Amino acid sequence: MNTNIAEREPQSPQKSYLGAGEQECLSSTLVIPTLNERDGLEVILPQIDPRWVDDILFIDGGSTDGSQEVIRRWGHGRL
């Protein structure tokens, strides 16, 4: 049975179930796409503080210039 959108009941906003004094904790992931970016990674990786985000994810498109080795040597994030 199809119902007209105008006939549907409005949905209430999602309620927060945090107690008094509790703060909602959000997580973040830094996604870094790479393809033969060895030189760029050598410059940018030392500037990233891994404490800024919960996860660092490198998406490599098949680099042949040593980008993956630079990422592994840096030691943070997932490839």
Description:
This protein has 79 residues and is α+β, with helices and mostly antiparallel strands. It is 19% helix and 15% strand. A two-stranded parallel sheet has the order 1-2. Strand 1, helix 1 (38-44) and strand 2 form a beta-alpha-beta unit. Helix 1 (38-44) runs parallel beside helix 2. The longest helix has 8 residues, at 67-74. It is elongated, with a radius of gyration of 21 Å. It starts with 28 loop residues before the first strand and ends in a 5-residue tail after the last helix.
What tags apply to this protein structure?
79 residues; alpha+beta
Helix-strand layout with pairing:
Layout lengths: L28 E6 L3 H7 L10 E6 L6 H8 L5
Parallel strand pairs: 1-2
Let me know the number of strands: 2
User: Average pLDDT across residues?
Assistant: 83
Order of strands across the widest beta sheet? 1-2
Distance between the termini: 47 Å
Largest sheet: 2 strands, parallel
> What level of helicity do the residues show?
10-25%
Estimate the strand proportion. 15-25%
The 3D shape can be described as: elongated
Helix-strand sequence? EHEH
Count of helical regions: 2
Radius of gyration: 21 Å
